[in-house]
């Protein structure tokens, strides 16, 4: 399959890339890893007039810790996220999630920024970013803009990014205290989209009270979903089997999955409940509470 | 609008004028006539088109030829050195790790990066490592053995016997 003809630009600075976005507007697409975009172009679901390849722009690929904040460049490959020692220390959740994204060759190309900017609720990082309370940095003609993750996803393939903005960095607060996080998705085979996926991050104080809870759901809603009632069910008290069951129940009620080849709506709701329970337990274990 | 690109393939530099929509696998097969790299699914699922791009295994059906400009590509044709089979090629031959052979070039290119990153992988690591490559006839057991054989050989160890074991 061959894509429709397009112009190809490979700017070597962010400013040049943004100028091209201003020139082409909606008719341009950013090419980072390309493993969602190129298949869509081959199927003619996407027919951009211009592809702006950002792979030659320096400064967009890094994983670093600065002032209590983890900063990941948008062009950082999934394989780099998967094998980062810094991430293994605070965020074993990234090991969980990247291992389940596509396969090793695709992870050599696919980028964290692309996974988010694509705006697909079937992608795995959106739920993780909801659980970790990430902030998305977008760079446009007027400089950088910080977008809280809760204001980033608008609808199917729609995000808060403007046509002249590029997602350049993801910032994640490094949690204090006893914190654990975990992600799992149910998939039919390697490389499949999630039947259901759940990301959890929990922080506990010295007396075992839950001081912060983040729970994100993959592919069970038109947009990536924060399970807000589930988080509330855990907050401000020690986590018990009863409150875990309550959180699982709320998540299965508050999502809105559609029946498809991966399972019926009822089955997916049931799997959300199962995964919420399991990921809370795994996050607690990693927080050193068990 | 044609773009001029220069790509080093198996050590030799090639310059070509290509349409931006030309896929890397088509450059390799149809412009450079290196047909060892196969097209299976054409949807980045099967791994038959796996090649090395600057040493990283990638699926060349989902990369544009223009994206390889200034980069180095290794295909299965580049594995043989001075007339000697690469240990992975030898491993696949010795372990009967192919029947139809369609997936073999992609398997070998993927395994090349796997062993470069992890010279002594466990069986589980090998199976996860080739999870983006589908085989539809031999089955994976002999492919795993072939990669173990090559790993041993590349570490300077004696590979496990490939003689049939009768019990």
What descriptors fit this protein?
heterodimer; A: 290 residues; alpha+beta; Uridine Diphospho-n-acetylenolpyruvylglucosamine Reductase, domain 2; Uridine Diphospho-n-acetylenolpyruvylglucosamine Reductase, domain 3; Enolase-like, domain 1; 3 domains; five-stranded antiparallel sheet; 34% helix; globular; B: 167 residues; Ubiquitin-like (UB roll); DNA polymerase, domain 1; 2 domains; 15% strand; elongated
Q: What string gives the helices and strands of chain B in order?
A: EEHEEEHHHH
Query: What distance lies between the first and last C-alpha atoms of chain A, to the nearest angstrom?
Result: 52 Å
Count of helix runs of chain A: 11
Identify the most extensive interface between protein chains. A-B, 30 and 31 residues
Q: What is the CATH top level name of the largest domain in chain A?
A: Alpha Beta
Structural class of chain A: alpha+beta
CATH class of the largest domain in chain B: Alpha Beta
Number of alpha- plus pi-helical segments of chain B: 5
CATH topology of the largest domain in chain A: Uridine Diphospho-n-acetylenolpyruvylglucosamine Reductase, domain 3
- Strand elements of chain B, count: 5
Order of helices and strands of chain A: EHEHEEEHHHHHHEEEEEEEEEHHH
Rg calculated over all Cα atoms of chain B:
16 Å
Largest sheet of chain B: 5 strands, mixed
Structural class of chain B: alpha+beta
Number of strands of chain A: 14
Largest sheet of chain A: 5 strands, antiparallel
From the structure provided, what is the oligomeric state, counting identical versus distinct chains? heterodimer
